[in-house]
Amino acid sequence: MGHHVHVRLSQGLSVSADGELIEHSRCRCGATFTKVFDAEDGKPEDGARG
Ligand SMILES: [Zn+2]
């Protein structure tokens, strides 16, 4: 066991109170992720910009 590359399996979508689209994902190891899509420009926001 040890470090591995998480596999993000989509668990569905939801919309925040701010109108942002939120994708929920989960790895088989139990880690969970969320990815927020800004409704304004439609670009994914994944922590780093650049
Ligand atoms: Zn994992």
Number of helices: 0
Average pLDDT, rounded to a whole number, is 84
The biggest beta sheet, please? Answer: 4 strands, antiparallel
What strand order characterises the main sheet?
1-2-3-4
Principal-axis shape equals: elongated
Query: Uncertain spans, ≥5 residues at pLDDT below 50?
Result: none
H/E element sequence: EEEE
The helicity comes to under 10%
The small-molecule ligands in this entry are: zinc ion
What share of the residues does DSSP label as strand, in percent? Answer: 35-45%
Strand-pairing-aware structural class = mainly beta
DSSP E strands, number:
4
Distance between the termini: 33 Å
The radius of gyration over CA amounts to 13 Å
Secondary structure layout:
Blueprint: E1 9-15, E2 21-26, E3 32-37, E4 44-45
Antiparallel strand pairs: 1-2, 2-3, 3-4
Residues 4, 6, 27, 29, 31 line the site of zinc ion.
Overview features:
about 50 residues, mainly beta, about 0% helix, binds zinc ion
Structure description:
This protein has a domain of 34 residues. 0% of the residues lie in helices and 42% in strands. The chain has no helices and 4 strands. A 4-stranded antiparallel beta sheet has the order 1-2-3-4, with no helix packed on it. A hairpin with a 6-residue loop joins strand 3 and strand 4. The radius of gyration is 13 Å and the shape is elongated. 0% of the residues are buried. The model has no long low-confidence stretch (mean pLDDT 84). The site of zinc ion has 5 residues, from loops.
